[in-house]
Amino acid sequence: MQRKNETSMAGSISNTAAPITSSLSKLQSLNGLFAIYKKQGPTSADVLNTLKEVLLREAGVQNPNPRKRRKQSLKMGHGGTLDSAASGVLVVGVGNGTKMLSTMLAGSKKYVAVGELGKATDNLDATGTVILEKDFEHITRLDIEEKLKVFTGDIMQVPPLYSALKKDGQRLSVLLKKGHKVEAKPARPVTVYKLTLQEFKPPLFTLDIECGGGFYVRSLVDDLGKALSSCAHVKELIRTKQGQFTLEEHALPEEQWTLEHILRSLQPCSDSELPDADT
Q1: DSSP conformational letter for 151
Q2: Contacts of 35 (CB under 8 A, 6+ apart)
Q3: Are strands 245-246 and 232-242 parallel, antiparallel or unpaired?
Q4: Labelling 179: which of 85, 150, 161, 273 has CA 20 to 30 A away?
Q5: Residues assigned a catalytic role
Q6: Which of 88, 147, 120 is nearest to 218 (CA)?
Q7: Other CB atoms within 10 Å distance of the CB of residue 245
Q8: Radius of gyration (Cα) for the chain, nearest Å?
Q9: What count of Cα atoms within 13 Å lies in the side-chain half-sphere of residue 61?
Q10: Distances (CA, A) of 12 to 25, 78, 97, 127, 186
Q11: How far apart are the first and last CA of the chain?
Q12: Which residues does the annotated region (Disordered) include (predicted)?
């Protein structure tokens, strides 16, 4: 009788373990791209780590630590940093899909940005410290629309000091927070495909932007403020599109960060789409 109980108990344990193993195997076999919604506040890296943790926990991994790279049980990366204060589309690559993220970095992106005239901040957005205030009453809607033409097309842009760009292996933003002196990176070529003024309610203005890789909306708004004989910073920033992924159609909200929803929205990658190993 005892042997029968032991047998049935062993059977129930194995039956319980089977779905967990199956879920983890499914998760680890994913290859492709999908998009999630990043809210304001956390960094893109923090959001990605939270996503990993949620998925690993769903697959039955106890107390997952997504930051540990050794024996990493889930290969995942994102296709372009969104500022902590920004929200919107964050494209995620999983498995071999991580090799396709370079196309996301270089590809077209769309943003809606709300700028505020009359105040400049040290990091060029609303989370920074105000370092300059100037009059803006002289600025009209027509003035902004005329100046936007200068920032459309192939232009040169100086990246902001507070950015994900690195010096000696460390992010400029991290070095600045540690009190290190950081020199601005040289101006570099970027492309702005479309730039329009959607709304103007002084001191606020709303821009609709479509740009290529390496473009900083914060630098645009800062440069625009200077061009208007005033100053400005980004009050709110939303990425509405990255590559083929849009905010409305593809970005999974946090409550849908599940294997089921990812399987539905995953755009798988074929071997022919993957970049060559030597490129």
Answers
A1: G
A2: 89, 90, 91, 92, 242, 245, 250, 251, 252, 265
A3: antiparallel
A4: 85
A5: 83
A6: 120
A7: 25
A8: 23
A9: 18
A10: 20, 39, 36, 53, 64
A11: 65
A12: 59-80
Nearest Cα residue to 256 out of 26, 34, 95, 28: 34
DSSP-derived 3-state class of residue 21: helix
Q: What is the pLDDT of residues 226-249, one digit of tens each?
A: 999 999 999 999 999 999 999 999
| C-alpha distances in Å from residue 26, one per residue of 20, 76, 190, 274 | 10, 14, 40, 21
Each residue of 168-181: pLDDT tens digit? 555 555 545 555 56
Token duo for residue 141: 């809607």
If you search the block for the tokens 């196309």, which residue do you land on?
Answer: 103
| Topology given in CATH for the domain delimited by 109-242 | Pseudouridine synthase (3.30.2350)
Task: State the amino acid at position 60 in one-letter form.
Answer: G
* φ and ψ at residue 176, rounded to 5 degrees: -65, -45
CA distance 114 to 198: 10
Answer with the residue of higher pLDDT: 182 or 126. 126
Q: Convert 188-215 to b/e letters by CB count within 10 Å (16 or more is b).
A: eebbbeebebeebeebebbbebbbbbeb
User: What's at 94, amino acid-wise?
Assistant: V
State the angle between helix axes of 141-148 and 217-227 in degrees (0 to 180), rounded to the nearest 10: 120
pTM given for the model? 0.83
CA distance 3 to 58: 33
